[in-house]
Amino acid sequence: MPEKLSPRAILEKLVSIPTVSRDSNLPLIEWVETYLNSHGITAHRHYDETNEKAALFAHVGPVTEGAVVLSGHTDVVPVDGQPWGTNPFEVVEKDGKLYGRGTCDMKGFDALAIWTLIEGHYADLKRPLQLALSYDEEIGCLGAPPMIEAMQPIVTKASAVIVGEPSMMQAVSGHKGGFGYHVHMQGFEVHSSILHTGVNAILYGAKIIEWVNQMNSESMAKEPGEVAAKFDPPFTTVHVGTIKGGTAHNITAKDCWFGVDFRVVPGDDAEDWRDLFLAKVDEVEAEMQAVVPETKIVLEERFQLPGLVPEENGEAEAIVRRLTGDNGSHVVSYGTEGGQFQEAGYSAVICGPGDIAQAHQPNEYLTVAQFDAGKAFMERLLVMLKG
Ligand SMILES: [Zn+2]
After folding, report:
1. How much distance in Å is there from the Cα of 215 to the middle of ligand 1?
2. What is the Å distance from ligand 1's center to 293 Cα?
3. Would you call 236 helix, strand, or coil by DSSP?
């Protein structure tokens, strides 16, 4: 039999390949694929349009329905400007902690998932097991949707997806979704003494921003629905985080740029929020054009991520509850690829080792205890799949 690596050895290998989102992840994909192939497992790549990144997925066990997918992303956030006490691209163990970029988010889970796939390949599984490794998660969850689409005709459609984002091995069944726009108000410059003949991009932009304030006040005043009530805050929020515009105090601003982000609580329809926003933009644009017809508002969508909606009797959550003994109800405020699997018709849950508080930080770490808890979870999963 070819060499079988421990989860720790796999983690060390994965961390040593710095797959920061802006760079190619192919060296990591290459290594994982070669390792799986050496054990006789076929893996499938799905490239992005640049051919510099790829997702990788594989299936072991019987070719039947009922598979469980272990889903992770391969990319990590940059370390630029962060004060690290150790080499971020090397796993360094100190005081029960495994330091290194991605140990927590989320190469620790990836390593466990790869280990489990190899174990599953040699076990007599009654239910199949699948591995799905994506790219570009950290820059807006861009890589999972094409991977999910590519998987469906090649491996049997799974009945449960476990997304291993750090959750301290608890079953997390919901998170908010979101979308965001860059807004570019294109006004008309005149001397501010005759401002009625110009279109001040800042003042018209302020109308949209005041609408944002109104929406938040109205949402805050409303009684939350049953699903929304689990979240903090229990409503959809709209936010403007950046703004710039104008050139001088006595010129009506020709340009104003700002960003509008929506965090949509499960239970609300993101498309309804989008429609409300676009209607407001149309209204303000019509007012601008009534003064100077060639003025306009240009929108650029920045990201769009579906929320993870707590499922009623969801298979994925049931599996994780059974394997962890966790019966609490947990939702989180960070977005994941779980909502994208769910949108494609899969039952999905989040469960992975580590604390999200350590993700993206300098001196990111995963405790040995959490890594061990993750391995114990995978061993129980294998027992379950052996039926
Ligand atoms: Zn992550």
Report:
1. 30
2. 46
3. coil
Distance (angstroms) between ligand 1 centre and the Cα of 132 equals 14
Rounded (10°) CA dihedral 145, 148, 150, 156: -170
pLDDT computed for residue 140 by the predictor: 86
- E-strand ranges in 10-77 read 43-47, 54-60, 68-73
Among 171, 154, 2, 9, smallest CA distance to 67 is for: 154
How far is the centre of ligand 1, averaged over its atoms, from the C-alpha of 140 (Å)?
Answer: 11
Partners of 240 in the β-ladder: 260
Whether 212 and 269 have beta carbons less than 8 Å apart is answered as: no
Query: How do residues 98-135 score in pLDDT, each as one tens digit?
Result: 999 999 999 999 999 999 999 999 999 999 999 999 99
State residue 232's pLDDT score: 87
pLDDT at 227: 87
Query: Which tens digit of pLDDT belongs to each residue from 302-356?
Result: 888 999 999 989 999 999 999 999 888 899 888 899 999 999 999 999 999 999 9
The candidate with the shortest Cα–Cα distance to 361, out of 165, 20, 82, is 82
Contacts of 222 (CB under 8 A, 6+ apart): 235
CA of 285 to the centre of ligand 1 (A): 38
Give the separation between CA 78 and CA 23, rounded to whole angstroms. Answer: 10
Separation of CA 157 and ligand 1 centre (Å): 23
Distance from C-alpha of 55 to C-alpha of 52, rounded to nearest angstrom: 11
Distance 54 CA to ligand 1 centre (A): 17
Rounded to two decimals, what is the model's pTM? Answer: 0.88
Residue 162: band (very low, low, confident or very high) from pLDDT cuts 50, 70, 90: very high
